[in-house]
C-alpha cells in the first residue's frame, strides 16, 4: 500500500508504520542517553500507545529497565485501511522491548471495561506478582460505565456562557473567530464521567482487591491547567471540571492506599501536540504561539522530555514529594515572561502574520509526525505493508 496522509479537520485517517516506528525509536534513543531512572520494576501504563502514555512507557522500560504492561485501544489494519498510529507505535515498542530482553505485554481493549481490568490482574498475577507504579494517561471521547452499561460522551465546551475567540485551521493557516455555546448540565456531567477520576479509582480498587499492589506503590494521572487564555475552554470548561474531579480522586486514592504506604499523584503537564490536544477548540493556535515563544527561549519540551523530568526529578527523586500538591511540569509553559508574551501577541495574530508570530509550521509538522509522516528518510511513494503484528499482544 502507498500510504499518504489523509486527514479531516484535526483527525488523520491514515498512519505510516515505518514513520511511527521511527518516532518510537527517537524517544527510546533520547531516554537511553539520560541518566538511569532509579525506580521500581513493574509498571502498568493505562493509555500506553500515543502521547504522554507512550512516552511514560518508553521512559520506564528503557530509562529504568522496568517490566511494563500497557493498555491501549487501537485499530489494526484492515483491507483498505492502515492501522492507527498507536497500533504501529505499540508494535515498535514491543519489538524494541523484546530486543532489549525486557518483559512487556500490551492489552488492546477498552480500559473502562471490567474485562480489561480482570485481564490485567490475571497478567500481573501470572507474570509479575505485583505492580509498583500505575500511570493513568487516558484521553477518550466516550466511556461506557461498566456498572450501568450507559455510554457517556465528553465535550469540549465552556460552562455558563458562550465563548468566542479565534481559532486556526492548521491545514490552511486561516484564522477565524469561533463561538462555542455553553455546555448543558448533562454535558458537564457526561464529560466528568469520561475524563474524571472514576475510572482511575476503579482501576486502583480492582488492583488493590486483587492484592497485586506492592507496598509503597505509586500511581500518577495527568492533568492540564494551562494558560489564562484558554481557561474558558479548558480549565473553566467541561474538560476542566472533569480534570478537577480527577485531581480530587487523587485524595481519595491517597486515603485508600495508606495501609500499604501507597501514594497517588497528579502531574500537570505542558500543552503539546497530541491527537487529543489538536481536537480542542482554540488550543492549536495557542500551542503554535507557545511553540514559537518556548523555542525562542530554548525552553520547549517534547512528551518524552516532560516525562523524563517527571520520573527523574519528581516521582523518583531523592527529594520527598508531597502528594497533596500537584506536580507542576507546566512550570516553563506558565512562566511569567512566556505568558505575558502569549497575552500580548494573541490579539495581533491573524491569517496574514501567523507564520511570523507563531510556529504554526512546527505545529503542523508535529501533527503529521504523530501519524508517521514528514520523515526525510522515508520515501512515501514506496509500497509498504500496513499489516503489522504486535508481539506480546493480548486482544480483548
Ligand atoms: P493521546 O490521545 O495521545 O493518548 C490517549 C491514550 O489513551 C492512547 O494510548 C489511547 O489508545 C488510550 N485510550 C483512549 N481510550 C481508551 C480506552 N477506552 N481504553 C484504553 N485505552 C484508551 O492523549 P494525550 O494527549 O497523551 O493525553 C493523555 C493524558 O495527558 C490525558 O489525561 C490528557 O488530558 C493529559 N494531558 C495532555 C496534554 C496535552 O497537551 N496533550 C497536556 C497535559 C495533560
Automatic annotation (TrEMBL):
Substrate binds at residue 224. This is Trans-2-enoyl-CoA reductase [NADH]. PANTHER family: ENOYL-[ACYL-CARRIER-PROTEIN] REDUCTASE [NADH] (PTHR37480:SF1). GO terms for biological process: fatty acid biosynthetic process. Its EC number is 1.3.1.44. Residues 321-384 form the Enoyl reductase FAD binding domain. Residues 81-316 form the Trans-2-enoyl-CoA reductase catalytic domain. Pfam families: Eno-Rase_FAD_bd, Eno-Rase_NADH_b, Enoyl_reductase. Belongs to the TER reductase family. Residues 2-78 form the Trans-2-enoyl-CoA reductase-like NAD(P)H binding domain.
